[in-house]
Amino acid sequence: MRCHRSGNIGERETGHGSRETFPETRTPYPVSRNDGAILLTVLIVILTIALVGATMMALFFTVLSLGQTELDRARALYLAEAGVAQAFHLLKSQAGLVVSTESQQIIPPTSLGEGFFEVYNDFSQSTITSIGVSHSVKRAIQVKYNAF
Question: N or C: which end of the chain has fewer CB within 10 A?
Answer without folding.
Answer: C
